[in-house]
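A favour, since you know our structure tokens better than I do. Go ahead and set the record down below.
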Amino acid sequence: MKARSFLCKIKDVKLTSKLLALYVVMILLFVGSTVLYYCGSYDALVREGQMLSDILVKQTKSSLATSMDNIMRAIFDTYNVRLLSSCLPGRDANENYYAYAYSVQNSLIEFLSLADNVNWIVAVDANDEAFYSSRRFSPRINYAYRENLQRDKADCMNFQGRLLWRRQEDGTINVSRMLFALPSMRYTGYVIVNIDADVFGQDAQPLANAGSIVFDSYGTPMLYTLNDSMLPLLELDPGSRNDPAIDTQTYSLSWESITNSSLWLCQIVNLGYAPQEMRRLIGMYVTACSGILLLASSVMLAIFRQIKRNITTVQNGITAIASGDLNCVIVPDAMDEIGMIGNSINSMAGNIKELMRKVEEESLLRRQAEYSQLEFQYSALQAQINPHFLFNALESISGLAKLNNDMQTSHATQCLAGIFRQNLERAGSLCPFIDEIQYIRMYLEMYKIMYPQHLRYVIEHDPDMDDIAVPAFLLQPIVENAIVHGISPKAEGGCVRITTGFNGERLIIQVEDDGCGFSQERLAAVFAHKSDEAGRKPRIGLYNVQQRIQLFYGPEYGIEIQTEEGKGTVCKISLPV
């Protein structure tokens, strides 16, 4: 009974403890066998080679790490990181793509001017939009950064801001890292810079019987100094720590990690040829190791049989749950780590059932939202019927007036119909400048029909500007203010003059009236969007036009107003060509 109780306690010991016990047994048995191995002269040779390898790897690591740190600090110093982070916030839905791309490209050019060792740079913002820039005389990029965008992003995410190194087929090196906005540490994107491998060449000088290999973050040889006989060692797996033998030559390997970017330095020392005595010692060592392995295998077999039973139980439960039986409950054979996994899977199955219930509820809500959207679109379609009916009715009235030789009524009706047509057709935020001029001409013509003796207007337009894109309905609020607030209060009426022209790289539109004008306090209240001293509400039209222009083109463009009470107003609009 005591033996059975003891076995039950061993069965419930955690898997890590079982493996640790097995490891201790293996070490104790292995120590006895290694005594025979270290009795020969080869022991001294191996230890001397390993000592040399350890010394060389530390020296090489120190020199190489210092060089890499200096180069990376020069490339990713505080200013460069802030420069890249600030230019990649991700474009807003209403932001102009070309303005945003132009800003990012300028930042990349500035980065290249500061980072001497960089051949080219690829920057990807938070919205996965990629931008590329290179030096004027650098080779053309041969890296498919757009095709590898998601892979590179995932790699950068996994490395959590550390440097990621990758050797390219042309021998150059790509260095990637994530970018965060300071001080909020909000993710803004990632960058890939390309540098030449020879910038590190002076830091790893080859010796007669020694060499070194630096593996990049993906386990590929990135830098190496090897003689011809050591070149097959480039096929080494960084995950392996065994000393290889090539063409009867044995090599001692020492490994060191460089920086925080998962770079591994492997220092290689040739231990020379094995003497004849080594063959006898190797035979003895192989015999001893065979006995040790036989004994260890017997112990391992007993342990792993118990582990296999537990794994089988958990695996069968996982298979049942994967087949859709979420009501299946796993009962582990032992409560080691594998048994704990079985219990966690039971909890996961319960969470999946709850998640599926929530998904069904969300699917129902989504179908209801889609039905509401269809109803909204139908209502929007009905709302368009009335404007089109009114436009067609005005066209019919104009035709009847022409039949009755009432040309004034026909002209007024055509102008009004033209205004309705422009309101219906100009649905976008931009339109050709000629459309805006034609619209404002019809608008002024309608006012002149209503006040034939009170209003005059002149439009001086350069036809070379017809195809320039400007914000839709740009001039109507300004012209309306000129008529209503400037000319209408004057008994003798007045004139509105519109002129267009170029001033360097800018389009200048000037709307001038000889009306009443207004005070400087009233002008300040207009742009501040506040009531003036008399308590009059602000003019929303001028304020909205100013806001639209600066939203499209930036704060350096907009409206400039010159006015004086009793002498009229000049409104000058500045837009980029």
